[in-house]
Every structure is written in C-alpha cells, then in structure tokens.
Write a structure and sequence with these properties.
single chain; alpha+beta; three-stranded antiparallel β-sheet; 43% helix; 24% strand; globular
Length: 101
C-alpha cells in the first residue's frame, strides 16, 4: 500500500488553498471582466522533458493526459498559446488560470 508523504500532503493542501483563494478573489472582484475561471495545475516533477519529441508526439501525449515537452520553456509557451496565464508558482507546482470557455 502506498502512503502519502507529509510533505506531499502539505504541498497539495497549499496548492488547493491558493486555488481556493484565487477563486474567491476573482469571484469577489470580477477580474478581467469575468468571474468564472478554469485552472490547470502543472507539477514540474511529473513533466516528461525530451528534446527529441516531435510535435505529433507532444499532442498525442496531451490527448492522453500526459505532460510532455521538449523543455520547460516550450511547455510554458504552449500553455500561454492556449490562453493559460501563470497564477501561482510554488515549490515545483505551477498553477495557471484562464477565463472559462
């Protein structure tokens, strides 16, 4: 049986708290003319980085829900091109947000 390490649990709770805070803040102030946001959480430790990946391999991995990129900059640029905005970065976890579609 796999156990959750206290540091992992603390990190997860911290990220969830930050997301809850951002949701409450955005709902209260209606930032950017919208009060509805969607969020994406990227754990950099789970990101598979391989400089030899092709565009097709990256898209297929995304379709299957696997985070792959040629490098971290490439992944961040892809997120930006898809309308995601960096909201929070903490200890290897990156939280992005964008207006709900």
């Amino acid at each position: 049986m796999k156990t959750i390490k206290p540091i992992s649990l603390s990190l997860a709770l911290c990220v969830l708290g930050l997301v809850a805070f951002m949701l409450a803040k955005d709902a209260a102030f209606g930032s950017y003319g919208s009060s509805r946001w969607e969020y994406s959480i990227l754990d950099v430790g789970d990101l598979v980085i391989d400089e030899s990946l092709t565009e097709a391999e990256i898209r297929e991995a995304e379709r299957r829900g696997v985070e792959k990129a040629r490098n971290l900059e490439d992944k961040l640029n892809r997120m930006g091109n898809d309308g995601w905005e960096l909201a929070v970065y903490t200890s290897g976890t990156i939280v992005f947000k964008r207006p709900s579609r």
